[in-house]
C-alpha cells in the first residue's frame, strides 16, 4: 500500500469518527474541505469496511491523535507553500506589469 493510500484510508476513518459527534459541514470546516468531500470519504469508509480486511484492521488500530497531528502538519505545510507560490506569482506578475508599462509609455523594453 502506498503512502497516499494509507493517508486516504486514515482520512476516511478520521472523517467517520468525527461524524459520530459533528455535522458534515462542521467536519468540512475543520478539515478545510467541502462537506460533499466528507460525504464521499464516509461512503468509501462504509464500502471498504464491507469487503476489505486490511482496511478493517486499520480501523481497529487507528490512532486519532496521531492522524490529527499529521493532518495539521500537512495543512500548515500546504498553506506555507501556497503562500510562497502566491508571493512568487505576484512578483512575476509585477515584473510583467513593469515591462508592459514601459512599452505603453514608449520606453525601451527590458528583458
Q: Can you give a write-up of this model?
A:
With 111 residues, the protein is an all-alpha fold. It is built from five helices and no strands. It has helices at residues 3-18, 24-31, 35-51, 53-60, 64-104. Helix 1 packs across helix 5 (64-104) and helix 2 packs across helix 3 (35-51). The longest helix has 41 residues, at 64-104. The protein is globular. 10% of the residues are buried.
Question: Would you summarize the structure shown here?
Answer:
By secondary structure, the chain is mainly alpha-helical. It has helices spanning 3-18, 24-31, 35-51, 53-60, 64-104.
Class derived from helix and strand content: mainly alpha
Mean pLDDT: 83
Helical content class: over 70%
Measured on Cα atoms, how large is the radius of gyration?
A: 22 Å
Q: Unreliable segments (pLDDT under 50, ≥5 consecutive)?
A: none
| Overall strand count | 0
What is the global morphology? globular
Q: What are the secondary-structure elements, in order, as H or E?
A: HHHHH
Beta-strand portion reads under 5%
Largest sheet: none
What's the N-to-C terminus distance? 49 Å
Number of helices: 5
Amino acid at each position: 500500500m502506498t503512502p497516499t493510500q494509507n493517508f486516504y484510508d486514515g482520512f476516511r476513518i478520521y472523517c467517520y469518527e468525527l461524524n459520530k459527534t459533528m455535522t458534515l459541514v462542521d467536519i468540512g470546516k475543520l478539515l478545510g474541505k467541502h462537506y460533499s468531500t466528507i460525504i464521499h470519504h464516509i461512503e468509501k469508509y462504509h464500502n471498504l469496511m464491507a469487503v476489505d480486511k486490511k482496511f478493517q484492521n486499520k480501523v481497529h488500530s487507528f490512532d486519532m491523535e496521531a492522524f490529527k497531528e499529521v493532518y495539521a502538519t500537512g495543512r500548515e505545510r500546504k498553506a506555507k507553500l501556497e503562500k510562497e507560490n502566491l508571493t512568487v506569482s505576484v512578483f512575476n506578475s509585477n515584473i510583467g506589469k513593469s515591462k508592459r508599462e514601459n512599452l505603453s509609455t514608449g520606453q525601451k523594453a527590458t528583458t
